[in-house]
Fold:
Amino acid sequence: MKLLVPVKRVIDYNVRVRVKADQSGVDLANTKMAMNPFDEIAVEEAVRLKEKGVATEVVVVSMGVAASQETIRTAMALGADRGILVQTDIELQPLAVAKMLAKLVAQEAPQLVIMGKQAIDDDCNQTGQMLAALLGWPQATFASAVALEGGEAVVTREVDGGLETIGVKLPAVITTDLRLNEPRYAALPNIMKARAKPMATITPESLGVDVAPRIATLKVEEPAKRKGGVKVASVEELVAKLRNEAKVI
Structure:
C-alpha cells in the first residue's frame, strides 16, 4: 500500500511572528522555518504504518519555494521513502494546493492520503476536505487514532461530545490531530541517508493547475496587546470591576 503525505514549510512554532513594516504580510527574513507540526504527525503515522507492514511506500509532497526541499528531507529522515517538490514562488492557497494534490494522486495512485488537519501559519483547515471532494474519496478528519484493516480505515476522531469512531473505505483522505502520536526525532545517520533518497522537482504548470491566488491580502497586523491582570481583594471588588470597568455584567 502506498501512502501520500503532504507536508508544508511554515515558521517554527517557537518563533515570534513579525509583521512587515508595510503590513503586506509576515516577515520571513532570517526566520527559522520548520515542518508544520500537524504534518509531522502525519509523517510519523505513515512511517509507523510502514513499520507495521501495512504500508509499503511513503511518499511526501511539499509545495512552495525551493527551500521546501529541506522540509521534504526532514520527512525522509523520519522514514519517508521519497519526495516530490512542486516548486513555485507564488503564494499558494488551499484550493490550488488541493487541485495539485489531486493531480499527484492521479499520477501516484496511493491508497491513502494522510496529512495534517491544518497548517499553523494560516489555520485554514480546508485542504484535506477539498482534496477529498475533488477526488470523490471518503474522508476522516481530526484523527486521534488510525487503524487500517480489510480495505478500510478505522479512525477515531475528537468531536465536541467526546470521541467518535468511524470506518471509511480506502482509498481515503485522513487528516491528523495532535493526539494521534508523538513524532520521533531524526537520528543523525537517518539525516545523512535522507540526502541520498530520491526527490523529484516539478512545477504547477506541469500539473496543469492554475495557482493564481483567488483571495487578496489587504493588510496584516499584530493582535492588540493585552493589558496586564490585577489582583482583587474581595468578590465585591471583582464584581464592581466586571460591572463598571469591563462592563460584562
About this structure: The chain has a mean pLDDT of 94.
